[in-house]
Design goal:
globular; metal-binding; magnesium; alpha/beta; 251 residues; cytoplasm; Hypothetical Protein, Haloacid Dehalogenase-like Hydrolase, Chain: A, domain 2; Rossmann fold; 9 helices; Phosphomannomutase; seven-stranded mixed β-sheet; 2 domains
Length: 251
C-alpha cells in the first residue's frame, strides 16, 4: 500500500510564530528535518511577503517550504518560483478604494483609545489592513490594545459599521493578529490559496491555525471541506499536534 501524499499548511502568527515574532530556530529545524520527510510544507499568511520573510528568518523560506502563499495566496510561490499574483486595486477600482479608505480614516478620527500611533491603513497587493491603534505601535502597546479590544470590541464594532456603510461592496472583513483586521474581496480569504493545490495530488491537506472562530482570518479555510482543520493555541501546540498526526515520537 503506497504512502499517503500529505501537505501540512500553516498559518503564521500564533501558529508558527508568536504574534509578529520570528520563528524559533528549534521549531524551524523540527519542521525541516522531522516534518518535511513525512509531509510537504506550505505556509499561508495574510501579510505581504516581506513580513513573512522577516518572521520566517529570511526570503529563502520559499525554498525551504514547498509552497508559500503571501496575502492569502494572491501572491504564490511553489519551490521558490512565483506562480502569480492578483491586485485589489485592479479588481475593485481606485474610485471604490478611495471612497472606502476615506470613510475608514474619518471613522478612526472619531474614536478615542488609550494610545494611538501611526499607519492606520496599510495598502497591500491583495487587501487593506486596518489598525485602530496604528501598526507603528510597540509590542507592549500591541499587547495592551489586544486586551482593551477583547473587552471593548473596537475592531468588531468597526467592522459592523463598515458592513452597514458599504453593503454593496462585496468585501470580507477578517480579524487576525493583535491590532488589526483585513479587508478584501469575497473569496480572497485563505481558501484562495487552495486553487494552487487542487491539482497537486494530495491525499490530505492539514491546515493549522489559531484564529479559527467565526470572524477570525483562519475560519474560512478551517471549515473548508477540502482540508482537515486543526485549531492550535501557539507554536508549542502546533508542534504537539504535528507529532500526534504524523506519529512522530517526541524527543
Amino acid at each position: 500500500m503506497s504512502q499517503k501524499k500529505i501537505l501540512c499548511l500553516f498559518d503564521m502568527d500564533g501558529t508558527l510564530t508568536k504574534a509578529r515574532g520570528v520563528i524559533s530556530s528549534k521549531f524551524y529545524d523540527f519542521l525541516l528535518t522531522t516534518v518535511k520527510p513525512r509531509s510537504c510544507l506550505a505556509l499561508v499568511g495574510g501579510s505581504d511577503f516581506k513580513k513573512i520573510a522577516e518572521q520566517m528568518g529570511g526570503a529563502d523560506v520559499v525554498h525551504k517550504f514547498d509552497y508559500v502563499f503571501a496575502e492569502n495566496g494572491l501572491i504564490a510561490f511553489k519551490f521558490g518560483k512565483e506562480l502569480g499574483r492578483q491586485s485589489i486595486q485592479e479588481f475593485v477600482g481606485e474610485d471604490v478604494l478611495q471612497k472606502f479608505i476615506n470613510y475608514v480614516l474619518r471613522y478612526l478620527s472619531t474614536i478615542t483609545l488609550p494610545v494611538k500611533r501611526g499607519t492606520f491603513v496599510e495598502f497591500r497587493v491583495s487587501m487593506l489592513n486596518i489598525s485602530p491603534i496604528g501598526r507603528s505601535c510597540s509590542q507592549e502597546e500591541r499587547d495592551a490594545f489586544e486586551r482593551y479590544d477583547n473587552e471593548h470590541q473596537i475592531r468588531k464594532t468597526m467592522i459592523e459599521n463598515l458592513k452597514k456603510q458599504f453593503p454593496d461592496i462585496r468585501f470580507t472583513y477578517s480579524i487576525g493578529g493583535q491590532i488589526s483586521f483585513d479587508v478584501f474581496p469575497k473569496g480572497w480569504d485563505k481558501t484562495y490559496c487552495l486553487q494552487h493545490l487542487e491539482k497537486e495530488g494530495f491525499d490530505e491537506i492539514h491546515f493549522f491555525g489559531d484564529k479559527t472562530d467565526k470572524g477570525g482570518n483562519d475560519y474560512e479555510i478551517y471549515i473548508e471541506n477540502r482540508v482537515i482543520g486543526h485549531k492550535v493555541n501557539n507554536p508549542e501546540d502546533t508542534k504537539k499536534q504535528l507529532e500526534e498526526i504524523l506519529k512522530i515520537k517526541s524527543v
